[in-house]
Amino acid sequence: MNHRDPPFSEIGDLKQWGRFEVEVPHTGEQTKYQIATALVRKHIPLRIGGFYIIASEEQILHSGSHDGNFQKHLIHLLQQVLNGHIKDERLAQEQVWTVHYFTTP
C-alpha cells in the first residue's frame, strides 16, 4: 500500500482492509490514549481477526496477526506504551504509528 491508495476498502458494513494514523500515547498522556483507542475502534470491528503492520515513515516497527479480538490487541499495544511496559522499544520511540490492516471475518 502506498500513499496514493485509498484509506480503506468496504464490503457492506465491514472495512476489509485499510490504514490509519494514530498518535502514540506516552506515559501520562491519558487523553491521547483515549483518542487513539477511539480511532482503533472506528477502524477495526470488535471480535474480528486480521493481519497488521505498524510502521513509521522510515520503517516497519511491528507486524502480526490475530484470529479474533484484533481490535483488543492493538489497544493493548497502545496501553503498554502508555504504561511504559512495551517489549519492542521501537513502538515507544515513535510519535505516530501508521497501522495497515486486513481483517479476516
Structure report:
The chain is of the alpha+beta class and 105 residues long. The chain contains three helices and five strands; from the N terminus they run ββαββααβ. Strands 1-2-5-3-4 form a five-stranded antiparallel beta sheet, with helices on one face. Helix 1 runs antiparallel to helix 2 (70-83). The longest helix has 14 residues, at 30-43. It is globular.
The rounded Rg comes to 13 Å
The overall pLDDT, averaged over residues, is 85
| Structure classification | alpha+beta
Strand content: 35-45%
> How many beta-strand runs?
5
Overall form: globular
Measure the end-to-end span.
Answer: 21 Å
The share of residues in helices is 25-40%
Discrete helix count: 3
Largest sheet: 5 strands, antiparallel
What is the helix/strand order?
Answer: EEHEEHHE
Identify the strand order in the major beta sheet.
1-2-5-3-4
Which residue ranges are poorly predicted, with pLDDT under 50 across at least 5 consecutive positions?
none
